[in-house]
Specification:
single chain; 441 residues; PmbA/TldD fold; 2 domains; 7-stranded antiparallel beta sheet; 5-stranded mixed β-barrel; 9 helices; 19 strands; hydrolase; Metalloprtase-TldD/E_cen_dom; Metalloprtase-TldD/E_C; protease
């Protein structure tokens, strides 16, 4: 990492020597290993090492950018020269520039995102093979497999700018997944399970992943469609984060200043039920979306995104903030660990309790297609899952489409389960929504 820090600081110095009014530079580097198996045989073993330096040079309100994967002094100097040459010929952009100096994270804590892990191909192969072998033997109806996959990656990020800020941190991530295929009669179904964590000690075991994958796959046998209807819908915890991810996209600066959001002019207004709050905490040790500073060097801080259903803040970079005449919120690069918190009256024990509360409706466990219009909020996606009656799962469902409008869907959340999914930067349990249109047979 020392070489990367030196390269970033050298690039900034060279830009200033060339007369730039400001400059910023970042390096992201990752190294990793992934192993895929299929039918209990090793299919692929891949090593990767990626990294590049990106430099942006400002001349007043004009900017130019260039990049290089070579960190030698000559290559860095050439990248600065190219960025500067571009800046000389671009048009003025009144919103261009660095984030304000007083927002820089000059004193930031260790985010504790790096945990040493083996990147020995033998260890990775052992995990993947063990997981798939257990899955293949888990039930006589498991007849095939789309394989198992183990991956381990680590890396670092360095960012610096002409305010005198240089920050860096290391990170790691490990994952294991498995996708068996089951057959009953002439129908075949597949499903999967996975585990992911920065700290390898927090990964589920191959046995646990295989068991969950087999259970998920077997449960889908005998799936059929249902008649077109309008019923409540539960988004399983594996999918529920996508609802709040859509909210994040809708309140991001790029969507707002381009007027391509279904939540334009909703700051200070209700976007969720009054009993629902979303808190952000960027400094959770080992958090999958933790970061001590954003991609512009702005310090990140814990903050309520939505309080009692009311939208407290947009998600802004410095550029988007200037477009909207608002300050940056430290979200260059994305969100930082969202925690979806219902009040006690609307939080139920888990998925079974949500089904009991729903009574009759559709439990969605898989979504297909990209039928989401972020401008209007119109939502229409292929779905699979389970039909629920009298609070009990009756049979698996396939070949249906669920439709609604995201603005209405978010406001029509009825309850949230305590079965929180820790494998995502948006942590939420399964979500029960009011009636949606189900298009089936």
């Amino acid at each position: 990492m020392d070489q990367a820090i030196d390269a970033v600081e050298a690039a900034i110095r060279q830009a200033k020597k060339r007369g730039a009014s400001a400059a910023e530079c970042a390096i992201s580097h990752s190294r990793g290993l992934s192993v895929s198996t299929r039918l209990a045989e090793v299919e692929t073993v891949e090593f990767n090492q990626d990294g590049s330096l990106g430099i942006t040079v400002y001349r007043g309100q004009r900017k130019g950018s260039a990049s290089t994967s070579d960190l030698s002094a000559e290559a860095v100097r050439a990248a600065v020269e190219k960025a500067d040459a571009i800046a000389r010929f671009t048009s003025d952009d009144p919103c261009a520039g660095l984030a304000d100096a007083d927002l820089m994270a000059f004193d930031y804590p260790d985010p504790k995102l790096f945990y040493p892990a083996s990147q020995d191909p033998a260890d990775a192969t052992e995990w993947a093979l063990a997981c798939e072998q257990i899955a293949l033997a888990g039930d006589p109806r498991i007849v095939n497999s789309d394989g198992a996959h183990f991956a381990s990656h680590c890396g670092f990020r360095v960012y610096g700018n002409s305010h005198g800020f240089t920050g860096h941190y290391m990170s790691s991530r490990q994952s294991l997944s498995c996708m068996p295929i089951a057959k009953e009669g002439d129908r075949m179904e597949r499903d999967y399970a996975y585990t992911i964590a920065r700290n390898p000690a927090y990964l589920a075991t191959p046995e646990q992943v295989a068991k969950e994958a087999v259970e998920n796959t077997i449960s889908r046998l005998g799936a059929r469609s249902v008649p077109t209807c309008s019923v409540p819908v539960i988004f399983h915890r594996d999918l529920a984060h996508g609802l709040f991810g859509a909210l994040a996209t809708a309140i991001s600066g790029g969507s707002l200043y381009r007027k391509s959001s279904f939540l334009l002019d909703h700051l200070g207004k209700g976007v969720l039920p009054q009993w629902l709050t979303i808190d952000e905490d960027p400094l959770v040790p080992g958090g999958l979306a933790s970061s001590p500073f954003d991609h512009e060097g702005v310090r990140t801080t814990a903050q309520p995104i939505v309080s009692d259903g009311i939208l407290n803040t947009y998600l802004l970079t410095s550029y988007a903030g200037r477009k909207l005449k608002m300050p940056t919120t430290g979200h260059a690069g994305g969100i930082h660990n969202w925690f979806v918190r219902p009040d006690k009256a609307h939080q139920v024990e888990g998925l079974e309790a949500l089904c009991q509360q729903m009574g009759t409706g559709l439990l969605v466990t898989e979504l297909m297609g990209q039928g989401v219009n972020m401008v209007t909020g119109d939502y229409s996606r292929g779905a699979a899952g389970f039909w629920v009656e009298n609070g009990e799962i009756q049979f698996p469902v396939t070949e249906v489409t669920i439709a609604g409008n995201l603005k209405d869907m978010l406001m029509n959340i009825q309850a949230i389960g305590q079965d929180i999914d820790p494998r995502h930067g948006i942590q939420t349990g399964s979500v029960l929504l009011g009636a949606m249109k189900i298009a089936g047979s």
